[in-house]
Amino acid sequence: MSNGNNMRTAILSAVAAAGVVSIVCLSQSNATPVSLSSEQFTIQPVVQTTHFTKVGIKEVETDLECLAKNVYYEAAFEPLKGKQAIAQVTINRLKTGRWGNTICEVVYAPSQFSWTLKLDNHKPQGKEWIVSQQVAYEFLEKGARLNSLKGSIMYHADYIHPPIWANKKYKVAQIGQHIFYKKDVKI
Questions:
Q1: 124 SS3 class
Q2: Rounded to two decimals, what is the model's pTM?
Q3: Backbone angles phi, psi at 136, to 5 degrees
Q4: Taken in order 105, 107, 113, 116, is the CA torsion positive or negative?
């Protein structure tokens, strides 16, 4: 069995254990229907993009994978709405063009998301990773949005002293441990 098939089997096993009814395989090149028990799953293809990290190492990731990682590392243990909020802010930032023209450029923009500054992030795994992938899929492929965060481009954790930029923005919501802000701009 090839590594790709082993990975697919491991992902589908994790999905079955977590009770998820649909999944997106982030590195599959062709859509493949997969049967798991009585449920039918489709592994969706995505387009890969190339970008450079802060240390200059060339990586190939999909926008879907970049968004899923951002949701995971920023909000893995937050409630579902907290995960969706991180996806929403990432999409809002993409719409401004200020942080990049792709999701991966937005996620890896210098000093924007704290997890990208660490070189020792653990590999995403478990139910939290599966849910993060699903949230990313819903936002990128199905157009899901949180209307309450329309225009929100910044956030910080509630357990830190508010950053200096926070007094120049408008607080719009607190979801889980994150406080969300927007600037008076139309997105």
A1: coil
A2: 0.67
A3: -60, -45
A4: negative
